[in-house]
C-alpha cells in the first residue's frame, strides 16, 4: 500500500482543494452572482456532457489501463497507444455530424420545459469531447503510476477557471452568454494541458502494425462504453431529467445538495486513480493474494475516512443551510439520501477497479444496464410526484442495488469480500454518532455551531478509531504525524 498511500494522499489533498474551490463556487458565487435559472442551466449543461463523455471516449480511458501492461515490445505498445488516440473519433465525428444536422430536433426535445436549453446544445457536445479526451490523456499517465498532475487538473483547474469567470461576470467584464462560452473554453484548455503532460511522460510514435488481441481490445472498449455510461448515468441523469420535467432553477437547488453530499466521495476518487492501474497489474499477473489484500485495505480505509466526512456533513447539514439562501434548503433530504449512497460507494474499495479490469465485466454491465433503465423509470415516476426528493430517492435506490450486486458478484467469482470485523465496528460507530448527534445543536451562530460540533465529531470518532486500532494504515500515518509534531 506504499505507493497507494503516497499518491492517494497527494491526490486527496488536491481533490479537497478542488472541492473547497467548488464549494465556494457552488454554495456562494453561483448562488449570488448568477440567476437561479442560469445556475440551473450550467448544472444541466455539465451533467449532460458528463453523461455523453463515456460514449465520446469510446471506453479508451479504461481500455488503455487494462491492456497497457500486457504489451511487452516497443512496437506493439506504440501501435496500441496510437489506436487509443484514434478510437474516440469513431464516435465523436458521427455524433458531431448528427448534432449539426439534427440540432433543431434535439434542441426542441430537450427544451420542452425550459426553452433556454436549446441555446446550449453545442456547448454540451464540445464539453463532452473535452472531457472524453481529457480522460484518455489522464489514463495515458495513470499506467505509469503518475496520477498527481492529472488529479490536479481533474479536480482543481476547471473549478478555478469557473471561479475566475464568475468574478468576471460579477464585475461585468463579461455577460452571462460570454460566461457560458468561456466555460467551454476552460474545459478545452484543460484537455490540451493534460495532453501536453501525457506526451511529456510518453511521446506517441507513429507505428502502423497489427495489434495482437485487437478483437478483445475493441470488444472491451465497446462494453466499457456501457460501463462508463452506467456510472455517468447514475451520477448525472437525475439532473438532466429534472431539467426535462420541472423548472430549471430546481436543478440549481439539486446541484447544491448533490455537491455537499459528493464531498464524501473525495477519498474514493483520490484513491481510485492509483487503485485502477494496480488492480489491472495484479489481475494480469494473476496475483490474487495481493488483489484481495488491496481490496480489503482500500475498503476499510475508505470507509473510515468517508464515514468521518459523512458525519461532518449529516450532523452539520441543518446549520449549513442556514448560511445559504432559503430557497436552496429544499435540498436537505437530497443531501441525506445521496450521502448514504456515497458512503456505501466508499465501503466497496477497489471493487470497480477489479470488475472493470477483469474478464467478468460483461455480466455486471448487463446488470448495470437494467438498473439504469430502472433508474430512468423511477425518475420519470418520482420526479413529477416528489420533485427533487424523487430524483434523489431514485438515485439512491439504483446505487444501493447496483453496488450490492457488484459485491456479491466479486465474492462469487473471485472468492473475496471487502468486509471484515473492523468494517462492522466502523459501521456501528458511525451509526451511533450519527443518530446521537443529528437532533441537537449548540444555540450559537451557524458557523460557530458547525465549528464546535466538528471538533466534537473529530475527537470522538477519530479517538475511537485510533484507540481501537481499526486500521493499521491510518494508525501508522497518524503515528508518523504525531512523531513529527
From TrEMBL:
It is found in: Cell membrane. The chain crosses the membrane at residues 12-31, 37-60, 80-101, 121-144, 156-173, 179-199, 211-231, 251-271, 300-318, 330-348, 360-385, 391-410, 422-440, 446-468. The keyword Transmembrane helix applies. Keywords: Cell membrane, Membrane, Transmembrane, Transmembrane helix. Its main location: membrane. It is a multi-pass membrane protein. It comes from the Bacteria. The keyword Transmembrane applies. InterPro entries: Poly_Biosynth_Transport (IPR050833). This is Polysaccharide biosynthesis C-terminal domain-containing protein. It comes from Hyunsoonleella rubra. The lineage of its organism: Bacteria, Pseudomonadati, Bacteroidota, Flavobacteriia, Flavobacteriales.
Amino acid at each position: 500500500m506504499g505507493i497507494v498511500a503516497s499518491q492517494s494522499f497527494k491526490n486527496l489533498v488536491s481533490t479537497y482543494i478542488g472541492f473547497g474551490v467548488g464549494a465556494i463556487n457552488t454554495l456562494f458565487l453561483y448562488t449570488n452572482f448568477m440567476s437561479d435559472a442560469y445556475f440551473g442551466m450550467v448544472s444541466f449543461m455539465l451533467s449532460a456532457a458528463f453523461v455523453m463523455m463515456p460514449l465520446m471516449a469510446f471506453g479508451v480511458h479504461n481500455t488503455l489501463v487494462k491492456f497497457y501492461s500486457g504489451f511487452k515490445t516497443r512496437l506493439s505498445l506504440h501501435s496500441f497507444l496510437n489506436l487509443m488516440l484514434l478510437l474516440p473519433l469513431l464516435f465523436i465525428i458521427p455524433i458531431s455530424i448528427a448534432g449539426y444536422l439534427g440540432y433543431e430536433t434535439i434542441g426542441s426535445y430537450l427544451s420542452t420545459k425550459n426553452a433556454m436549453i436549446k441555446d446550449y446544445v453545442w456547448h454540451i457536445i464540445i464539453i463532452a469531447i473535452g472531457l472524453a479526451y481529457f480522460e484518455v490523456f489522464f489514463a495515458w499517465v495513470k499506467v505509469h503510476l503518475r496520477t498527481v498532475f492529472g488529479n490536479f487538473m481533474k479536480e482543481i483547474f476547471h473549478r478555478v477557471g469557473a471561479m475566475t469567470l464568475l468574478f468576471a461576470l460579477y464585475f461585468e467584464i463579461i455577460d452571462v452568454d460570454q460566461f457560458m462560452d468561456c466555460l467551454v473554453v476552460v474545459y478545452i484548455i484543460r484537455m490540451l494541458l493534460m495532453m501536453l503532460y501525457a506526451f511529456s511522460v510518453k511521446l506517441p510514435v507513429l507505428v502502423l502494425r497489427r495489434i495482437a488481441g485487437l478483437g478483445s481490445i475493441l470488444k472491451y472498449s465497446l462494453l466499457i462504453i456501457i460501463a462508463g455510461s452506467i456510472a455517468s448515468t447514475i451520477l448525472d441523469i437525475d439532473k438532466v431529467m429534472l431539467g426535462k420535467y420541472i423548472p430549471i432553477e430546481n436543478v440549481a437547488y439539486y446541484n447544491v445538495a448533490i455537491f455537499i453530499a459528493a464531498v464524501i466521495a473525495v477519498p474514493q476518487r483520490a484513491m481510485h486513480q492509483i487503485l485502477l492501474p494496480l488492480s489491472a497489474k495484479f489481475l494480469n499477473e494473476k496475483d490474487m493474494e495481493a488483489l484481495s489484500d488491496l481490496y480489503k485495505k482500500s475498503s476499510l480505509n475508505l470507509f473510515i475516512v468517508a464515514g468521518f466526512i459523512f458525519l461532518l456533513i449529516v450532523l452539520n447539514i441543518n446549520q449549513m443551510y442556514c448560511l445559504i439562501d432559503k430557497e436552496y434548503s429544499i435540498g436537505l433530504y437530497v443531501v441525506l439520501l445521496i450521502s448514504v449512497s456515497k458512503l456505501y460507494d466508499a465501503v466497496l474499495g477497489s471493487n470497480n477497479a477489479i470488475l472493470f479490469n477483469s474478464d467478468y465485466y460483461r455480466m455486471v454491465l448487463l446488470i448495470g444496464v437494467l438498473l439504469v433503465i430502472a433508474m430512468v423509470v423511477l425518475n420519470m415516476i418520482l420526479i413529477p410526484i416528489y420533485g427533487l426528493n424523487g430524483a434523489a430517492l431514485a438515485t439512491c435506490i439504483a446505487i444501493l442495488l447496483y453496488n450490492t450486486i457488484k459485491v456479491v458478484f466479486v465474492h462469487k467469482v473471485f472468492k473475496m469480500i471487502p468486509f471484515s470485523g473492523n468494517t462492522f465496528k466502523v459501521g456501528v460507530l458511525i451509526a451511533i454518532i450519527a443518530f446521537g448527534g443529528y437532533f441537537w445543536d449548540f444555540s450559537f451562530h451557524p458557523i460557530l455551531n458547525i465549528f464546535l460540533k466538528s471538533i466534537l465529531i473529530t475527537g470522538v470518532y477519530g479517538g475511537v478509531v485510533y484507540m481501537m486500532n481499526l486500521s493499521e494504515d491510518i494508525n501508522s500515518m497518524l503515528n508518523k504525524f504525531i512523531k513529527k509534531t
